[in-house]
Design brief:
This protein is an all-alpha fold and about 325 residues long. It has helices spanning about 1-30, 35-40, 45-55, 60-75, 85-120, 125-140, 145-160, 175-205, 210-220, 225-235, 235-250, 255-260, 265-275, 280-305, 310-315; strands spanning about 80, 85. The protein is built from 15 helices and two strands.
Length: about 325
């Protein structure tokens, strides 16, 4: 197991290097000058040139990249001139709301998807199956921010059950924390629920054709026992893959929903940094989000061996 983990981590190093190069080049080619935005319209050319020199923005691109990458090797993501803080500090200050929103959204998506995905597989070909399949397609098709606006209009404006927007940390109380996260979590989780539900249905239907399922039926096992104890368990590997990818997508792709609901997470950090042309913060944040995404995929791969012993055998663990 340890050798497998080490090999997977080493395999991630080239990916992270390529991401670092691409992110740096994209920021360099993006129009706009962070120094001009920082100093304002009234700043003179001499002042702008002086600050650019102090920040190293007047160096050749390869020197800027070398200095930035050298800092990455020792864990230094750079210094944000707008927040007046190290980028790592700014990133972790905004990480908590995003992770809380992602976990809540994923739990909603998993509960909905597994419940209705298995139910649709059991009712294959009926009007229930067709209805659930249509609902899953609608869930995938409707953008999260649009779903969020619909939810705000219904549950916050009309019914006044939940807050319109904002964020309260868990220190203010778990119930208050969840009330502010519920609408954005449903908005994000709906799309992921549609994806996971379709994968659950197709995976369970595929496993239901297996010979051991027929054997279980011939032994007189109940339908629920066959479906949940045998079929769902053996169909869970592809479902787990979708769950892992969707959780990574929730962390890295919640920018619009966080902006709509005014949640001070990573998405809002990236949006604000783009508006300010805070290239150092953008580079460090995107790189850290990429690291989180690839390590989530690593965790999913390791869970394969926990769920299915055949995976451990094939990998010699």
């Amino acid at each position: 197991m340890l050798n497998y983990i080490i090999k997977r981590i080493l395999a991630l190093i080239p990916v992270l290097i390529v991401v670092a190069v691409v992110v740096f080049l994209l920021m360099y080619l993006t129009p706009g000058d962070p120094v001009s935005v920082l100093l304002g319209d009234e700043a003179t050319e001499e002042t702008i040139a002086q600050v650019r020199h102090e920040l190293g923005y007047d160096l050749p691109i390869y020197e800027q990249f070398f200095n930035w990458f050298k800092g990455l090797l020792v864990g230094d993501l750079g210094f944000s001139i707008f927040y007046d803080l190290p980028v790592s500090t700014v990133f972790f200050e905004h990480l908590g709301p995003t992770v809380a929103l992602a976990i809540y959204s994923q739990l909603i998506a998993i509960v909905i998807a597994l419940t209705f995905g298995v139910f649709a597989a059991k009712k294959r070909g009926t009007w229930i199956d067709n209805t659930l399949s249509t609902v899953s397609v609608l869930g995938i098709s409707i953008p999260s921010f649009l779903m969020g606006l619909f939810l705000v209009l219904l549950f916050a404006v009309q019914l006044k059950w939940l807050p319109v927007a904002g964020y309260k940390p868990i220190e203010d109380g778990l119930i208050t924390h969840l009330r502010y996260l519920t609408l954005p979590a449903i908005a994000l989780g709906t799309m992921q629920a549609g994806l996971i539900m379709r994968m659950t249905r197709s995976s369970v239907l595929e496993v239901m054709k297996a010979p051991y399922i027929k054997t279980a039926k011939s032994k007189g096992l109940s339908e629920n026992s066959i479906t949940y104890k045998h079929a769902l368990k053996n169909a869970f590997l592809p479902i787990l893959t979708v769950i892992g990818e969707s959780f990574g997508a929730l962390i890295t792709g919640a920018a619009v929903v966080e902006t709509v609901f005014n949640i001070p997470g990573l998405g809002q950090l990236i949006v604000n940094s783009i508006e300010r042309r805070d290239f150092i913060t953008i580079q460090g944040s995107i790189l850290m989000m990429t690291v989180m995404y690839v390590f989530l995929n690593l965790i999913v791969d390791l869970l394969y061996g926990v769920i299915d012993p055949r995976v451990r055998i094939s990998q010699g663990k």
